[in-house]
Design a protein that fits this description.
Mean pLDDT: 88
Largest sheet: none
GO cellular component, one term: plasma membrane
Shape: flat
Membrane topology: Multi-pass membrane protein
Enzyme class: transferase
Pathway: Lipid metabolism; Phospholipid metabolism; phosphatidylinositol phosphate biosynthesis
Order of helices and strands: HHHHHHHH
Number of domains: 1
CATH superfamily: CDP-alcohol phosphotransferase transmembrane (TM) domain
Protein name: Phosphatidylinositol phosphate synthase
Helix content: over 70%
Low-confidence stretches: none
């Protein structure tokens, strides 16, 4: 869904990418810094109940995920860089949801914390399904809750909850949990059809 915005974001951030490339900054540096910043800010701001500030700071670091891709295309990124980016994306996602879950537990919202945990697990399975499909020579680029959508939803609802909007965090997390389950089903269905066709030949 958010892939339609990627070209516009790429054009917007390309000048910064060229500036960093000229000064010796590598995609791997951006990837590592973005992940470290995301995890650190998630585990600091969210558990302390600072949802508005946390969401804004985390969003800043999440944008590094776009910037490292832009840099990689400018500098002919490596296979190791691609692996590092995908792996650290999972670390960053875990940091965001873990920080929110800790906040909910400390705030006494244990049922909603369970919803956050389901989002964390569901997101991991969504990512694994795609990676496993690609490892078998197939594709699974489908789903209503890909990584970009999951991050967008959790950051927006956490921000709005911090502003005092009622029920938005509950609606967002439970909705995201359901969407993650649906996405896993969509990817399994797509891979199943490819696998059956492959085995038939």
């Amino acid at each position: 869904m958010l892939n339609v915005l990627r070209p516009a974001m790429t054009r917007l951030m390309s000048p910064l990418g060229r500036f960093l490339a000229r000064h010796g900054v590598t995609p791997n540096m951006i990837t590592a810094a973005g992940t470290l910043g995301t995890v650190a800010s998630s585990l600091w701001f969210y558990p302390h109940g600072q949802l508005v500030a946390g969401s804004l700071v985390i969003t800043f670091f999440v944008l590094a995920d776009l910037l490292d891709g832009i840099l990689a295309r400018m500098t002919k990124g490596s296979t190791w860089g691609a692996f590092l980016d995908s792996t650290l994306d999972r670390v960053a996602d875990a940091g965001v949801f873990s920080g929110l879950i800790i906040y909910l537990v400390l705030d006494g919202q244990r049922v909603l914390a369970l919803g956050g945990l389901l989002c964390l697990v569901g997101g991991a399975v969504v990512s694994y399904a795609k990676a496993r499909a690609e490892g078998l020579g197939m594709t699974a680029n489908v789903g209503i809750a890909e990584r970009g959508e999951r991050l967008l939803v959790v950051l927006v609802v956490a921000f709005l909850d911090g502003l005092g909007v009622p029920y938005v965090l509950a609606v967002g997390l439970w909705g995201l949990a359901v969407a993650s389950v649906i996405t896993v089903g969509q990817r399994m269905h797509v891979v199943y059809r490819q696998a059956v066709d492959h085995d038939a030949h």
